[in-house]
Amino acid sequence: MKKGILFQFEIFKKFNVALNLSLNDIRSQFRGSILGPFWSVINIVILVVILSFIYGTIFDVETSILVPHIASGLVFWFFIANCLNECSEIFVLKRDLIKNIAMPVGIYVLQVIIKNTIILTYHLIALVPFLIFYEVNLLLKIYFVLIGFIFNFFLLYTFGYLIAFVSAIFRDIPHIIKTINQMAIFVTPIIYTKEMLGSRFIIADVNPFYHIIEIMRSPLLNKELDLLNWTVVIASLIIIKISVIIFGKYIQDKTPYYI
After folding, report:
1. What is the pLDDT of residue 233?
2. What average pLDDT does the segment 96-118 reach?
3. Helices and strands in the chain, H and E counts
4. Most buried among 8, 54, 72, 256, using CB within 10 Å?
5. CB-based contacts of 235, cutoff 8 Å, min separation 6
6. Tens digits of residue pLDDT in 172-182
7. Closest by alpha carbon to 213, among 236, 231, 188?
8. Contact 8, 154 (CB under 8 A)
9. pTM over 0.70
10. d(CA 212, CA 229)
11. What pLDDT, on the 0 to 100 scale, is given for residue 51?
12. Which candidate, 246, 253, 257, places its Cα nearest to that of 2?
């Protein structure tokens, strides 16, 4: 256990390495594009406008409630979904580096989370105008948003570490994760509110994606904090983190053989 904890600290000591890999990845992804990451900002703005119109008309919900909810939900959802999708493929994509450079494989998972955190900051540009237009006080509970993000950062890293290793063994896992993410956006209160579920609110309560999003979205929209959201996220982080500490060294040693 002690060795596992020290091994995880070794990964975060190389944070600068992961950051540089992330920046290089972003430059490579958007090379040749005039707008670069701002294309994803435009996509979110268009999605928010279209979905708000459709769901607001169908369910007769006030735009002052629905638009900030959808905008913040989509921004945080894309962050979560992209982290999980990319983590499921990262060890295979980085196989040459993993086999030839003596470096903790967790660095590449950390690279994915940092990269999507940087892209998240661009997406927040799309979110701010909607919040300002609908008079949401951005500074009222901003510290809770940051705390929620920190918890989710480590949760996605630890879970992504396990996903990356399992996906290296079973190559069907990335496809399964992408399918789950595609379905999850419709069964998670992202583009509709939990209240719109009525008596079927249990759909949200048993959905971990809802709790992960909500610890960042609720304080951003100045809603009351829900203890259930934080309990689910913190408990999940503790359980998964213990698993990573226990199996982290095994994953480091065995990953080169599976890729």
Report:
1. 96
2. 91
3. 11, 0
4. 72
5. none
6. 999 999 999 99
7. 188
8. no
9. yes
10. 7
11. 87
12. 246
